[in-house]
Amino acid sequence: MYNALSGLNAASRAATLVSSNVANAMTEGYAPRSLELSSRSLAGTGSGVFVEGVTRHTDDVLLGDRRLSDAMVGYDSTKADFFNSLESLIGTPDQPGSLSGRIASLDAALIEAAAHPESNARLSAVNTAANNITDHLNSTSKAIQSARLEADQAIAHQVQRLNTGLKQVEELNVKIQEAQARGVDPSGLMDLRQQTIDGISPILPLKQLPRENGRVALITTGGAVVLDGKAAQFEFTSVNMIVPEMTQASGALSGLSMNGQSLQTGGERSPIAGGSLAAQFEVRDELAGEAQKRLDGFSRDLIERFADPALDPTRASGEPGFFTDNGSSFDPTFEIGLSSRISVNAAVDPAKGGQTRRIRDGLGASVPGAVGNAQLINDLADALGKSRVPASGGYGGAARSSSDLAADLLSSVSADLADAETQRSFSMSQYNTLKQMELSKGVDTDAEMQKLMLIEQAFAANARVITVADEMIQTLMSI
């Protein structure tokens, strides 16, 4: 009778696990369970079946690889999204309003104005085309700084998520340990812990290490121990505004610290390298800064093309040329953020109190000159198309025209985008493959149904034993 009762209990527990497995076949992070049984003996005689416990089936190696791949996707996607946005800001030649298109429009406007220097409409078209270029550079620079600000805010958000997730894993570790001490199945808590770790794995590339009593420790691939007993506390302070001069090195932007110790946020040796958090720091402190540098270099080249004193004899010494640094002459020691300040000389802009005739007569011409004189306009067109070596921006030592320099600026961004997209495609393919492998090791409903049939048969057989034993007792009692 006791043997049969223990068999009924085991079959009932097994049916409970099967029903849980089937019910959670589509649940993210759920690991299949199975019942571990052993035969019990008493004084050398079989005494029924003993339920050892519940086994939660996971492939820890596959799970770890998938989490690292998840972090790689977060890193590559963040970079690719930045370069894609930057390419859209600069604009490809086939897009209306692109930088190269605006340079071509200015060149065409100068040629048309030189053909009819007496036409105020054509001189106004030159002023409009020039303002379109400076507006484009201003807005692109502003967008780059907005991208840095968004990255800064994303860092703050991810640090908060990271701290919350690590604290939750710490608390789950304690609950799992307590459940095991009470003899309660902690599988549900382990599922929740796995889901919590999965939630923060795109932020940091984490490795999970087993500890006693069902607890786990977490360490980054860069060697930072973020959880071992107690969860680490990350600190970061966001800002409300970012301008080109603000950097982490200058102290204007916050770095990252863990338990009060500063962490290196960039480079391969960074303890946080490889996740979306590291990518956001890279966007804020490196990629956007390099983009701003190249844009400033282009703006400087544009200003210096028209700053030659021999180009316009009417311009006083030291006065700015056709393009200015916020209305003043350009100072090479103050190049950072130049693309956000570049503007057309107010002397030729009616919106700023100037006159478009000075495009023909000269920036310093106080009285109108000969309306048929197109010499200065032709010289301006030549200056725009002249090949010269850029003084800054990292463009190399080759001489280029203004349109060629705009093409090089776009080409460098497009090349970075192509590399980032290639890396993202690889990491996404790897992640999807590992995810499919992980899902294939999940609940097999066909196998669970077959198992349920065996459980049903075992339950019926044990119930039959009890029925027979009861009949025997009743027979004995009736004698």
Topology readout:
Elements: H1 2-23, E1 33-42, E2 45-56, H2 60-90, H3 99-115, H4 120-182, H5 187-200, E3 206-210, E4 216-220, E5 225-228, E6 230-231, E7 234-235, E8 256-258, E9 261-263, H6 276-305, E10 323-325, H7 338-341, E11 342-344, H8 358-361, H9 375-385, H10 402-440, H11 445-478
Antiparallel strand pairs: 1-2, 3-4, 4-5, 5-6, 7-8, 8-9, 10-11
In short:
The protein is an alpha+beta fold and 479 residues long. Helix content is 56%, strand content 11%. Helix 4 (120-182) packs antiparallel against helix 5 (187-200).
Would you give an account of this structure?
By secondary structure, the protein is an alpha+beta fold. It folds into two domains: 2-57 and 442-478, no CATH class; 63-432, no CATH class. The chain is built from eleven helices and eleven strands. The strands form four sheets. A four-stranded antiparallel sheet has the order 3-4-5-6. Strand 8 (256-258) and strand 9 (261-263) form a beta hairpin. Helix 1 (2-23) packs antiparallel against helix 11 (445-478), helix 2 (60-90) runs antiparallel to helix 10 (402-440) and helix 6 packs antiparallel against helix 10. This is Flagellar hook-associated protein 1. It comes from Aliiroseovarius salicola. It is found in: Bacterial flagellum basal body; Secreted.
